């Protein structure tokens, strides 16, 4: 991120330098064009005066033409430099746009990753809470299971005790009944006597 910002700043500085150079070339080009126009006017004036066939006028005309050629060459060179400078400016503009786009894209990716990180942290926290709840439920179920097992053992013990008490009472009752029953019933004896034949 910091490297990208530093690169973008360097591109902006370079772009500023290219623009300054372009401005200077534009100013120089305007001056050259102005001089060429002035010289062309002088050429026309000298050509008008050359009809007098004055050697001095011819010499001045040659000097002017030489100067025009020199200025024309300078203008051509200036245009070439301006074209190269424009190309460099377009290249610098493209580099600056690319760097800016990369910075924007980097910020977007960083924001997206930050959002995903928060989402995953929320999911992890929810899972931890669910795990804690499950562990609490498991602990409660284990405690309930142990209570149920203890209750079952106590119930079995009570049932066994009741069965033993019932058996004891049954045996006691049976023993009491056996001791209280007579060996022969008087009613049966009376009935047997009355049914014997009379003499």
Care to give the gist of this entry?
With 199 residues, the chain is an all-alpha fold. The chain has helices spanning 2-49, 55-180, 186-194.
Our count of helices gives 3
Q: Describe the biggest sheet?
A: none
- The number of E-state strands comes to 0
The proportion of residues forming helix, as a percent range, comes to over 70%
Order of helices and strands, N to C? HHH
Secondary-structure-derived class: mainly alpha
Strand content: under 5%
Q: Flag low-confidence runs.
A: 183-199
Distance between the ends: 145 Å
**Rg over alpha carbons:** 63 Å
What overall form do the CA principal axes indicate? rod-shaped
Mean of residue pLDDT? 77
Give the helices and strands, then pairings.
Layout: H1 2-49, H2 55-180, H3 186-194
Characterise this structure.
With 199 residues, this protein is mainly alpha-helical. Helix content is 92%, strand content 0%. It has helices at residues 2-49, 55-180, 186-194. The radius of gyration is 63 Å and the shape is rod-shaped. The termini are far apart. Residues 183-199 have low confidence and may be disordered.
Features:
mainly alpha; rod-shaped; 92% helix; 199 residues; 3 helices
């Amino acid at each position: 991120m910091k490297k990208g910002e530093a690169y973008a700043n360097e591109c902006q500085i370079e772009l500023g330098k290219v623009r300054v150079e372009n401005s200077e070339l534009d100013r120089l080009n305007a001056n050259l064009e102005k001089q060429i126009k002035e010289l062309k006017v002088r050429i026309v004036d000298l050509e008008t005066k050359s009809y007098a066939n004055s050697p001095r006028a011819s010499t001045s005309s040659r000097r002017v033409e030489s100067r025009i050629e020199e200025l024309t060459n300078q203008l051509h060179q200036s245009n070439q430099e301006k074209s190269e400078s424009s190309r460099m400016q377009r290249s610098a503009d493209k580099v600056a746009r690319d760097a800016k786009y990369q910075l924007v894209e980097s910020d977007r990716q960083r924001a997206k990753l930050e959002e995903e990180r928060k989402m995953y942290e929320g999911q992890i926290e929810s899972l931890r809470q669910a795990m804690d709840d499950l562990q609490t439920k498991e602990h409660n179920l284990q405690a309930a299971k142990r209570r149920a097992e203890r209750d079952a053992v106590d119930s079995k013990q009570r049932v066994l005790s009741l069965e033993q008490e019932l058996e004891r009472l049954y045996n006691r009752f049976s023993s009491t009944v056996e001791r209280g029953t007579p060996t022969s019933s008087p009613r049966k004896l009376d009935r047997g006597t009355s049914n014997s034949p009379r003499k």
